[in-house]
Description:
By secondary structure, the chain is α/β, with parallel strands linked by helices. The chain contains 13 helices and eight strands. Helices cover 40% and strands 18% of the residues.
Amino acid sequence: MTIDLEQHRRTINLAQGEVSLVDVGEGPAALFVHGVFMNAHLWRHVIDRAAADRRCLAVDLPAHGQTRLPDGADMSLSAQADLLASLCDALGLDKVDLVGNDTGGAVCQVFAARNPRRLRTLTLTNCDAHDNLPPANFQQAVDLAAKGELAPVIRQLAADPDLARSEIGLGAGYEHADRLSDGDVGLFMNPVGSTDEAAHKLESYINALDVADLLGAEEGLRALEVPTIIIWGTGDQFFELSWAHWLRDLIPGAYEVVEVAGAKLFFPDERAAELLDALQRHWREHPSANAAAV
């Protein structure tokens, strides 16, 4: 039976604002972090299996899902990493198995560089790395956001599920976006585009992303001994496979690149079983790292 993530949603009041997350399962805590346009729903199929032996926590980042931060809140990568640390504090989490995708992977890198002792393991899937922020194929969206012209496009995508499934929307990150139901499309797009306010918040989020924050994390990542695995879809138009090997070579604790043949950016949703095979092996093979069940 598929877990209804919305039945396990909770809101945590932090100094930064109201952060929404899914919290399901028992055992060592695994924290899942999504990227632009997505939310905790990205991890639905992963959590459906992983919750059997993990406490699965999937956060909605600022300007996404049901997380609500005040107007003008800092949404830089550094601020998002600090938000994750505050969330762990509020939940009483000593250590987590951290898993990131897309922009969430960049947030995870900054968090890991600053908080290595808070990690049992690290897993990075297709994501920004080094100076590849924004990736070339996302530059047009960044340029529109900078001019305040992306919000109307986001509104159009949220209003038209077929358009949202096209290559200008979710189809850019899915192999088979046509298989997404209108309900699934709505769960992704409505929180960021159902109102003008939401669309402008997402614009502000994109405008706040600065490659300097990611480059600034590299010194910490070069010293990161935490067991790390890189699981990468090879069909991604945004993040080429070479970036997976670059991350493996950068992080001392990184020991393997797992290739998911032909998979695109959002493969944690549509090819969750392949991600889980590698992810659960990663967790099993580091029992000493996973000794604490917080």
